[in-house]
Amino acid sequence: MGLFDFFKKKEATPQEQQALDTGLEKTKDSFFSKITKVVAGKSTVDDDVLDDLEEVLVTSDVGVSTTLKIIKRIQDRVARDKYVNTTELNSLLRDEIQHLLAENNSNDFANFEYGSQKPYVIMVVGVNGVGKTTTIGKLAHKLKQAGNQAVIGAADTFRAAAVDQIQLWGERVGVRVVAQAMGSDPASVAYDTLRSAVASSDDVAIIDTAGRLHNKVGLMNELTKIKNVMEKVVPGAPHEILLVLDASTGQNAIEQCKQFTEATAVNALALTKLDGTAKGGVVIGISDQFRIPVKYIGVGEGMDHLQLFDRKAFVDSLFKQ
Question: Among 47, 73, 103, which residue terminates a domain?
Fold first, then answer.
């Protein structure tokens, strides 16, 4: 069984699709208003249109390298088909973005169900302010809804009120929290959490970590210590190293992804606050640049507004008119 094989495929519910559509409204409105200006007065997709489209993608936080890939693909299509009407540009762009996401390891996930590994250990990393604590709470809620018994380890012991916030989320969603005093050794908290998870036969253990972007050596050493301690209790742990990024920060989210992927073996991404930004294009750029699955997206403030990423649903919503 592969790392994410236990996430069973299913169709998004109407409520989930509506939340996704609503969450991407700002990005979609900004994106299409820019494209409309690009094709105004044009009948074919020529070099001028492609130059303007390149600018649209870059300013939509898709990223320069990813934008150039998309433009090259569209150029090839235009050259092959000889004549492409501007009215076809949206469907052409939609196809190429979907293909790019498919190639870049952005698997589709559709259920918060647990697989054969028990406990399945998720270590959550990311800077303060990106919505890490909220994402952990919502993820615990979703896992519980899917029938899993989960526990949260409050291993961010450096930030004032971090432990309190995690405990509040635990109470809110009805999930047990393992915590120590502020300033305690984070690895000790992680160790206690996994021992508790094993003793209680929990399905999933979610380990919070300090949201600091200090120097890479310090970050790597701290996260490595936590990982090594957890592996002593649960061989192979953590099974998922989840990096939480704030989509509204655009290119800054890409820089954070670069920093954390250099410091530890991140193998899943969560993009938060998509509902509050026009920079949703960053999902495409991050997926392409880092080849790490975008696994979760936050499309609202409600507990049910954390969704498993589905590339087709995402692109369909982005291009829905």
Answer: 103
